[in-house]
Amino acid sequence: MSTGAYINIALHKPAYQLHPYQDAQYHASNAVDGLKSDMSVFGDECVESEGDQIAIWWVNLTSIQSIHHITIYFRTRDSDSGFRLFEADSFLGFSLYVSITPDIKQATLCFKDINFTKNTIPPVFNITCPVHGQYVIYRNERREDVSYPYDYSSSASNNLCEVEVYGCSRSGYFGQNCSIPCPDINCQNCHLETGNCQMCKPGFKGQRCELACDRGYFGTACNKTCGHCAELEQCSSINGSCLTGCDAGFLGETCDTPCPPGFFGQNCSDECNKTCKGCEHVKGLCTSGCHPGWKGEYCQEECDIRSFGADCIGTCGHCLDVQQCSRINGTCLTGCDAGFQGDFCKTPCDKGSYGLKCRETCGHCQDVAQCSNTNGTCLTGCKVGYRGDLCKRPCDEGTYACNKGRYGLGCKEMCGHCHDMDQCLNVNGTCATGCGPGYRGDLCKTPCQHGYFGEECAERCMETCAGCNNVNGLCDSGCLSGWFGYFCNKAACSREFIGNDSYEKCNNTLDIWNSGKLQTLAVHVYNERRECCSAVSMRIKWGCGKHGSPVVIWKLSFCLLFYKDWDTGYSPCRGGDIPETLWLGHSPSVGMLEQRSRGSK
Question: Where would I find the EGF-like domain in this sequence (predicted)?
C-alpha cells in the first residue's frame, strides 16, 4: 500500500517479538502480512505475546531506508473469552523507535505515549517520523519498581494487528514523489522533506558528506575499524577490504579473521610445530604449551636429562640409568637405583628391605625403620648380639655383654642396686636375683616406700623416728620429741636423774658432793633442740697444775672443767685468780653442756 508516492516498506519483512504467545497463530509476522480484515483475537491476523514486565516487537527493513511516517493498527474487537491481554489498557504507555540496529540505545524515539487512556487511545495510530533506519521497534513496559496510572494494565503485551512503515522505495531521493536526488553527491539518505543529508554513503562523513573516512576506518558514518591490512593505507574506506593483503596471522577480504588452529604467518601458510599444543597465529609461538617431552617458545627442544612431561616441568626419579628416563612420562626404562621401586623409581623400598629391586633384607637393626633403603646400613645401630654396619654379623661368644654394672644399647645405662651385681641383665638391666637392702622393682632403682627399710623393704622404721634411712633404718632425719639415739629408741630425762623433763629444771640444776679431794658432780644436760636429755654423774679427782691451775682427771667420754667449789669455798689449787665461770663442756653422745656463772643453782 502507498500513501502518495510513499510505499509500505515493512510489508512482508522479517519480524520478531519478545515472549511470544504459546500458539503459533499469533506470530510476530502477522503485523506485517498486510491483512486487516479481522483484527479480533480469533481472526488470526494479529500479534499476541505473553504478559510480562517488558513487551517488544520489531520489523527489520533489511537495509537502511528513508522513513516518512508509521501507522499502527491495534486490535479493536475483543472475543467473548475475555482475556485481559487484549484490552486497551495493555496498549497504554507504548513507545515507537527507529534504529539502525535492534538496540534501542542507538535508536531515534519517534513517539512515547504519556496521555492516552483506555477511552482515548485510537484504534489506528499515525506518527510522522522522517528518519532513516533499518529497524522499527514497538516497546511497552510494566516494571515492578515504577508506579503507573490506575487504568494501565498490570503487565505489558503486544496486541498489534498491523504495522505499516511508509517511505521511499530507494535511497538518495526526497520530495513528495521521492523523485528528487539528494543534493550532496556522497549522501545516502537525506531528509524526505528538506533534502538535508541525514546519512552519508559508506566511506564518507561531514555535514555534506564531503570528507573521506580517517585512515583505519570505513563504512557508514566511518564507525568501523579496518582489519589487519598489510598496509593500513590500503584499507578501503567504503567496505574495509585490504587491497594489498593481510598482515601475518590473518585472512579474509577485510583481514579480520585469524589463521585457523595449527597455522600461522603470512597468508596463514606456516604450520605450527607438531610438538606444540597450540601456537598463536602471528609468529607461531607455542602459547598453549608443549606436548610432553618438549620445551621452548616453539617446543623445538627436547627435555634435559632428569626432566620430563609437558614443558619439561617433571623431575625424573632414581632411575638406574638416568639417560633412560622417558622424557614423555618419566618412566625409568631400565629399572631403578638401589633403594627404590615403581615405574618412576620415586618410592623407597618397603621397611625391612633395601638394594637393587629391593630384594635385600635388612639385618638386626635396633630400629628397622632406620635401615638405609639404598645399602642396608643400620643408621641407629644394632640390636644386642649383632655388629657391623648391616648388623648381620653375630657377636663372638662371650663378647657381646656389657661390663659389670651396665646394660642396654651401647651399655650406656647403669644397673640399679641389685643384690648380686653379676646378675644385672645386660639387655634390660633387670636384677635377676632381686634387690639389695633398701630398694625394690625389676631394676632395683626405686627406694623403699616411706617408713620401710632393709631387705625387700620388709622392715619398718621406729615410730619415734622422723624418717629413717631406707637401707639400715638409722633415723637420719631425726627423732620425735622426747627421744634420742641412732634409732630414736632412748627416752630423754628418765626419773632416776635429778629434775624433771622441763628445760628450766634441767638447765638450773647443779649438785656437788665433797669427799676430801674427790668430789661428785651431778649435772643435767640438754641437746641442740634444747630438750632435756640426761643427767651426768661423775667423780672428780682434783690436783693442781704447774701454775696453780686446777687439774681434773676423768675417765668419761666428754670434757668437764671445774674451777671452784663455790658452795664450800674450798679450792685445792694454790695461787692465781679464781674464775667466775663454770664450763660444762660438750659430750658427743649427750649434747651441749651449759655454761654456768658463779653462784648459780
Answer: 181-210, 228-269, 271-300, 311-346, 357-392, 410-445, 456-489
